[in-house]
Amino acid sequence: MKAVVLAGGLGTRLRPLTLTTPKQMLPVVDRPMIEHVLAGLARGGVDGAVLSLGYRPEAFWAAYPGGTCAGVELSYAVEPQPLGTAGAIRFAAAAAGLNETFLAVNGDVVSDLDVGRLWDRHRRWGAEATIQLVEVDDPSRYGLVVADGDGRVLSFTEKPAAGGPAAAEGPGPAPANRVNAGMYVLEPSVLDRIAADRPVSIERDTFPELAAAGALRAVAGAGYWIDIGTPESYLTAQLDLIGGVRGPAVPGVSPAAAVEADAAVERSVVMAGARVGPGSAVRGSAVQTGAVVGAGAVVADSVIGPGAVIGPRARVTGGSVVGPGAAVAPGASLNGARAPAAGPGNG
């Protein structure tokens, strides 16, 4: 099984963490996000993947100079310009010479869903494309999918309004909360539907076209799934790992971190080389490599980037994000803020 992994976005919603680091190279507890993604694919039978890159591709090359990650053999396709999700898949598949059935996955989705089951169902149906579905509480951030009892997709609506109608279903509330999980099995013929001379979205263009032609199937699945696109979900993914929500709990505090005896670290990640000072408190947060939490400071429900310094008695709370190398002055207070301030964008 071969896969195309989309990892070329700017990750603007995670700024300032992504100002110098691609989103998929951000650490999730003890290793980069992309390693969690590829490990999940490997468990399902994937042995080779082409990473579709755009933003700072050298970070991936430097991290995996041997050309393997999580037991998966890697190749790379660097877009000359943003081509959209479908365009990126087409470009990467061509670069890797994929001319048989293959997987395509979003590189910011960490999941325990069984891609092997998705693959088998696709082959059994003889579908042109088959997508993995998951149930979520709020489908407004995702692609809402309506399928019949045989898995044939009747409608595909990208990012519907919360509680709004699904396309092809007429007025009324969305009939289900099953959404596109960002995992697909595709036949090479799908690539022929994607224009080569302009950006194309697989969610907004290709899948609705396939659904209208009766060529798109969907498989519902149960299991851990999270789309790491925002600081909130980035933090949640890490707290899930150390809290045992996703499999056996893993240690949150690295043995290579320095935590003072009278500091309080609760339900948090403290990475290698980080220092948590005397009388300080870190709760429900992630403190990345080399960051410093000063004496008497409080960090709650927030992310502290690598090498950042939280001054003595400062308070960083409410989903704040402190970027790489940034400093919060002694006694200062950040609540739901970003330092330095992140620009607009939702990539």
Beta fraction: 25-35%
- Give the name of the CATH superfamily of the largest domain: Spore Coat Polysaccharide Biosynthesis Protein SpsA, Chain A
What's the β-strand tally? 29
- What CATH first level of the largest domain would be assigned? Alpha Beta
CATH architecture of the largest domain: Alpha-Beta Complex
Average pLDDT, to the nearest integer? 90
Largest sheet, strands/sense/barrel: 8 strands, mixed
Q: How many helical elements?
A: 7
* Proportion of residues in helical segments: 10-25%
Radius of gyration, taken over Cα atoms and rounded to an integer in Å: 21 Å
The strands making up the biggest β-sheet line up spatially as 5-6-4-1-7-12-9-13
Q: Report the span from N to C terminus.
A: 28 Å
Entry keywords:
347 residues, alpha/beta, Spore Coat Polysaccharide Biosynthesis Protein SpsA, Chain A, UDP N-Acetylglucosamine Acyltransferase, domain 1, five-stranded parallel sheet
Structure description:
This protein folds into 2 domains: 2-231, Spore Coat Polysaccharide Biosynthesis Protein SpsA, Chain A, CATH 3.90.550; 251-339, 3 Solenoid (UDP N-Acetylglucosamine Acyltransferase, domain 1). It has an 8-stranded mixed sheet, sandwiched between helices. A 5-stranded parallel sheet has the order 15-18-21-24-27, with no helix packed on it. Strands 16-19-22-25-28 form a 5-stranded parallel sheet, with no helix packed on it. The chain has 347 residues and is of the alpha/beta class. 20% of the residues lie in helices and 29% in strands. β10 (143-147) and β11 (153-158) form a beta hairpin. It has helices at residues 33-43, 58-63, 84-96, 115-125, 188-191, 202-212, 231-243; strands spanning 2-6, 27-28, 31-32, 48-53, 68-69, 72-78, 102-106, 109-111, 129-135, 143-147, 153-158, 178-186, 216-220, 225-227, 258-259, 264-266, 269-270, 275-276, 281-283, 286-287, 292-293, 298-300, 303-304, 309-310, 315-317, 321-322, 327-328, 333-335, 338-339.
